[in-house]
Write a structure and sequence with these properties.
Strand 4 and strand 5 form a beta hairpin. A 6-stranded mixed beta sheet has the order 2-10-9-4-5-6, covered by helices on one side. With 132 residues, it is mainly β. It starts with a helix and ends with a strand. The radius of gyration is 14 Å and the shape is globular. The chain has 1 helix and 10 strands; from the N terminus they run H-E-E-E-E-E-E-E-E-E-E. 8% of the residues lie in helices and 48% in strands.
Length: 132
C-alpha cells in the first residue's frame, strides 16, 4: 500500500525546477538472450533516483531506490537485473539474458527528497519490447 501511495505522489507533486529534465535510452527491441542497457541522466542533482516498470498487466512495480548513489532498497528480482548509480545525475539498469516476461515500460524517477518530505519529483519512461 505504501508503494502505491508513493507512486501516486510522484505523479501529483509539482516539479521542483521548471527546467528539470531526464534524458533516457530510447525504446529497445530485443531477442531472447540479448542484454538490455537502460540509462537515464537528470539535469538537476536530485538526491533520490528510482527504477519502476509496468508490464502487460499494467501494474506499476517498484524495482530500485538509490539515495546519494547508494542502493537503499530493491525488489526481489532475478540476478539478471542489476542497477547502479555511477554518478549523482546518472542511473543505469542492465538486464542480462532478457526474457519475454521482461517486456515492459521501464520508468526512471528522480526526487530532491522523499515524497513525504518534498514537493519536487520528476519521472521518465523507457520501453523494452521483446521480438519473437
Amino acid at each position: 500500500m505504501w508503494i502505491s501511495w508513493y507512486i501516486l505522489s510522484i505523479w501529483l507533486l509539482e516539479i521542483g525546477s521548471l527546467n528539470a529534465r531526464i534524458d533516457q535510452t530510447p525504446g529497445l527491441v530485443l531477442r531472447d538472450g540479448d542484454t538490455a542497457q537502460l540509462e537515464c541522466n537528470q539535469t538537476e542533482s536530485h538526491n533520490y533516483m528510482f527504477w519502476y516498470r509496468q508490464g502487460a498487466n499494467r501494474v506499476l512495480q517498484f524495482l530500485y531506490f538509490f539515495q546519494y548513489r547508494e542502493l537503499l532498497e530493491n525488489s526481489s528480482l532475478p540476478e539478471r537485473f542489476a542497477a547502479k548509480q555511477p554518478e549523482t545525475q546518472r542511473l543505469q539498469l542492465k538486464i542480462s539474458s532478457v526474457k519475454q516476461e521482461d517486456s515492459a515500460i521501464y520508468f526512471c524517477a528522480t526526487s530532491l527528497d522523499t515524497a513525504v518530505q518534498s514537493n519536487a519529483s520528476h519521472l521518465q519512461e523507457h520501453f523494452i519490447c521483446m521480438s519473437v
